């Protein structure tokens, strides 16, 4: 069937973090969920479950594991085993549980900034220190500074590396060669690789996601991979995610830690949604990817033609677009405040993702095209007034 991603659905008054946390006239293009209705088979499966009318504690059926295994095989060409799967209420609870299981307070955890900011709390809440391997911005896209990475990984206090594959917010899909080099360095210094692959299905044409664990047997056995259907199918509120751990010794530790944190109880609706998504959601996803591609390309043309003061870091993955606003000469926090106050548009301030995110903004483009057009016009209005004002101040 043909899905209509242009359809505008009012999300106000649905307890939506994105829509209900700011005034009515604010257009929200920030937190990472989508303004699209999910795939019909998922809605039907949930409706069927609702009709039963009893929502007691749930157990995980075989069909759930089979759906997860089959998704890995058909979308990512990687054969995982059912017994490698641990379930959890979310990727962030999983990361916290893993950090807790594999570190002692005072240990260090490596990340690559700028990066999704909740990694920080998973580390510091476990009384560990954050060590940053800053990604290198070459004016167009981001690369890994391997020399710096190796030097940081060689610190014997560094026990875990939390790796974002593909990367939020810089939009990189890491190559096999990059994955391999990271894997080799981590193995050399006994650093466990915890891979966040929550955005793995949202890849633009021309790029291909490679699961870190699929690169080699060594990568597989020295890694823990966190995934979820939540970003792909817009199911974040259902609190259902999986952790893939091939190494049996690690798996026991992860399971114990999830239990200690009570993050392992399944959500009755999440189970049904995941099964339907992974068994019957491909048609919807392929159409979503075409639509997102159109949104991404629209944004790139708009910026190039109408707001050339900004520069798009063209994403290879994710519906989150990272833009360089450093030429405006004002801090990204101040710019976001202006965009919010004057433009009535809510986007993310890049500095929230680490110091090197200063001078950048992040915009969520997973919305009907009409919202994107409106958002771009609001952004243009603020940038033009801010930019012109700065120029005039310089003249004075
Ligand atoms: C890289 C990354 N990891 C994890 C999450 C959140 O995952 P969860 O809602 O399953 O805790 C997000 C949400 O934006 C994300 O971008």
Automatic annotation (TrEMBL):
Similarity annotation: Belongs to the class-II pyridoxal-phosphate-dependent aminotransferase family. MalY/PatB cystathionine beta-lyase subfamily.
KW Transferase (keyword) present: yes
Cited InterPro entries: Aminotransferase_I/II_large, C-S_lyase_PatB-like, Class-II_PLP-Dep_Aminotrans, PyrdxlP-dep_Trfase, PyrdxlP-dep_Trfase_major, PyrdxlP-dep_Trfase_small
PANTHER family attached to this UniProt entry: PROTEIN MALY
CDD domains: AAT_like (cd00609)
Domain Aminotransferase class I/classII large: 33-372
Gene3D superfamilies: Aspartate Aminotransferase, domain 1, Type I PLP-dependent aspartate aminotransferase-like (Major domain)
Lyase listed as a keyword: yes
Domain of life, per lineage: Bacteria
EC number: 4.4.1.13
Pfam families: Aminotran_1_2 (PF00155)
A GO MF label: transaminase activity
Protein name: cysteine-S-conjugate beta-lyase
Keywords assigned by UniProt, alphabetized: Aminotransferase, Lyase, Pyridoxal phosphate, Transferase
Cofactor: pyridoxal 5'-phosphate
